[in-house]
Design goal:
The protein is built from eleven helices and ten strands. By secondary structure, it is α/β, with parallel strands linked by helices. The chain has one domain: 3-Layer(aba) Sandwich (Rossmann fold), CATH 3.40.50.300. The strands form two sheets. Strands 6-7-8-3-9-10 form a six-stranded mixed sheet, sandwiched between helices. It has a four-stranded antiparallel sheet with strand order 2-1-4-5, with helices on one face. α3 packs across α4 and α6 runs parallel beside α7. It is found in: Cell membrane. This is ABC transporter domain-containing protein. Its main location: membrane. It is a peripheral membrane protein.
């Protein structure tokens, strides 16, 4: 797989249409979705529930399931159109070249297998590491995500908290140093403080690994804080794309403006500018 340098597009999604097809009938879920992501960049897809952002993320990761299918467009990853590639090739990219973090973090684990064994299997599936080398790598990454490595390694998933499991999911997604991380609502099921810690950690590890991030979220405050560019989705369409500063200070589309107005304010309002109040302060 060809590695690109920082600033080059690693992912190009061109005119992507996803439909639900059942018994000869087709219903469009997304239509004419286009965006690109550059190495080292975070692009956020933001919109209300049902806008099509998670479906788009699943398409990029090659995880669409029936009745959903791609009926038009291209997904070009590192110069290769994944929609024209063998299913086995696309599957081989997941984990090694495309990491995934989803909101259902518990669903990422087999409940009756210890966490360490599952991490070792991920590593050995995609590399030639011996079991001893894979164990050392797994322990190192558990330490990097600020967990007690040995105890976490020996634990079953049900013995760990939601925040701990999400940290492990993040370690599993990044330890093979993918070129792209797809993060679909990664903190929705967590409390605010734990969620902030996970997002801080994801940003820190992004700088270490050098990957691009496709961040899916409905939380515009988090998006403005964490993203380089933002694409706003409504009813299966991208209605506006811009830098975070442009979206924050000069949104063009009425839907984007409505999302901004829906952001909750905080108690220090009297000390802040209107823009700072909308987004919870300078971040």
């Amino acid at each position: 797989m060809r590695r690109l340098t920082e600033g080059q597009p690693i992912l190009n999604v061109n005119h992507l249409t996803i439909s639900a097809v059942h018994q000869g009938h087709s219903h469009r879920i997304t239509e004419d979705i286009s965006f690109d992501i550059r190495i080292g960049e975070t692009l956020a897809l933001v919109g209300e529930s049902g806008s099509g952002k998670s479906v788009t993320a699943s398409a990029v990761a090659g995880l669409l399931t029936k009745p959903l299918t791609i009926t038009h467009g291209q997904i070009i990853f590192q110069g290769i159109n994944l929609l024209e590639s063998r299913a086995g090739y696309v599957k081989s990219l997941r984990g090694k070249e495309i990491g995934c973090v989803f909101q259902d973090y518990r669903g990422s684990f087999t409940p009756f297998m210890k966490v360490g064994h599952q991490l070792i299997e991920v590593i050995r599936t995609h590399t030639r590491a011996t079991r001893a080398e894979a164990k050392e790598m797994a322990l190192d990454w558990l330490h990097r995500v600020n967990l007690p490595a040995q105890r976490s390694f020996r634990s079953y998933p049900f013995q760990l908290s939601g925040g701990q499991l999400q940290r492990i999911v993040l370690a599993a997604a990044l330890m093979l140093k993918p070129a792209l991380l797809v993060a679909d609502e990664p903190i929705t099921a967590l409390d605010v403080i734990t969620g902030q810690a996970i997002m801080d950690l994801m940003e820190e590890l992004q700088h270490e690994v050098g990957c691009a991030i496709l961040l899916i979220s409905h939380d515009l405050r988090q998006v403005v804080k964490r993203s380089n560019r933002i694409a706003v989705m409504q009813r299966g369409h991208i209605v506006e794309t811009g830098s975070r500063e442009q979206i924050k200070h000069a949104p063009h589309h009425p839907y984007t403006q409505a999302l901004l107005k829906a952001c909750p304010t905080i108690s220090r309002k009297q000390h802040m500018s209107p823009q700072e109040t909308q987004f919870g302060g300078n971040r």
